[in-house]
From TrEMBL:
Belongs to the short-chain dehydrogenases/reductases (SDR) family. This is SDR family oxidoreductase. Pfam families: adh_short_C2. Keywords: Oxidoreductase. One of its GO terms (molecular function) is oxidoreductase activity. SUPFAM superfamilies: NAD(P)-binding Rossmann-fold domains. PANTHER family: DEHYDROGENASES, SHORT CHAIN, ESTRADIOL 17-BETA-DEHYDROGENASE 8-RELATED. The lineage of its organism: Bacteria, Pseudomonadati, Pseudomonadota, Alphaproteobacteria, Sphingomonadales.
Length: 260
């Protein structure tokens, strides 16, 4: 198998794939380019988004039948279950779930109202729980599976960049949840890993002034922001059998911003 076809035969779901500049968008294209069949899911999903994803692939000959789209609001467990079942109906199995869905909000601790906290944890943590639970039902049945969850540097260093304490806490929960899944489901041939990105050039960075971005970049050893494709490359590695003995791991994609 050539490296470029490393995901031949695999069926992957990427959730949070609606934003044109997002990590989910780049991940869908990366997985398609490496041979996977991909279901792109998000709170918004339509034929225009699918056409955009396909036209952004490096390989211009990927058949339309290799990609499907599904609407899924991860705060609704029923929609997460419906997503999994739709993928099994269409492609016969699910090999890997990549969860890129998330929200961020920057604010001081004293300004985090109960409603703000609930909204944040409902999407980032409960939503991840909903998706993983729905996927694990399929994974157990089929005897294998693989989860990649997106957390954040904020969870590791106590917030301080884009998100407030509620964002950091929700992403810390994603790490603990994913590690627990890795431990409990490893004996069932199911892997689960975490990616902690930081300062990736997506809409999440649009809230920073140019001055603030420059200040942050000065503190990053690689002296630049990251590209969505660089997180997508890590998703590719974790989705593939190259990472077959890796589970419960937290992989930093942060240009050295947090060396620990
Ligand atoms: N960009 C960064 O620097 C950075 C840093 C650390 C962590 N992350 C994490 O990476 C992931 C992707 O971030 P991004 O920068 O591509 O952001 P983004 O805003 O471009 O993408 C987030 C996606 O999540 C979707 N989403 C939000 N709520 C949803 C819901 N209830 N159900 C389904 N989908 C929902 C949005 O529609 C969007 O497509 C997020 O989990 C984010 O927290 C990003």
């Amino acid at each position: 198998m050539s490296l470029s076809r490393i995901l031949d035969g695999k069926v992957c779901i990427v959730v949070g794939a609606s934003s044109p500049k997002g990590i989910g968008d780049a991940t869908v294209r990366m997985l398609l380019d490496h041979g996977a069949k991909v279901v792109a899911a998000g709170i918004v999903m339509n034929d225009d988004i699918i056409a955009r994803l396909l036209s952004g692939c490096t390989d211009s000959e990927i058949p339309r039948s290799n990609i499907d789209g599904q609407i899924c609001d991860i705060t609704d467990f029923g929609q997460c279950q419906a997503l999994m079942e739709a993928v099994v109906d269409k492609f016969g199995k699910v090999d890997c779930l990549v969860n890129c869905a998330g929200i961020v909000e920057g604010c001081a601790f004293s300004e985090i109202s109960s409603d703000k906290f609930d909204r944040m944890t409902n999407v980032n943590l409960k939503g991840t729980f909903n998706l993983c639970k729905a996927a694990l039902q399929v994974f157990e049945r089929q005897g294998h599976g693989n989860i990649v969850n997106l957390s954040s540097l904020a969870a590791q260093r106590g917030g301080g960049l884009a998100g407030g304490a509620h964002y950091a806490a929700s992403k810390g929960g994603v790490i603990s949840l994913t590690r627990s899944i890795a431990r409990e489901y490893g004996p069932m041939n199911i892997r689960a890993n975490i990616i902690c990105p930081a300062m990736i050039d997506t809409e999440m960075l649009d809230g920073f002034s140019a001055k603030r971005q420059n200040e942050i970049v000065e503190s990053i050893p690689l002296r630049r922001v990251g590209l969505p494709s660089e997180v997508a490359g890590t998703c590719l590695f974790l989705a593939s059998d190259l990472s077959g003995f890796i589970t419960g791991a937290t992989i930093d994609v942060n240009g050295g911003a947090h060396i620990h």
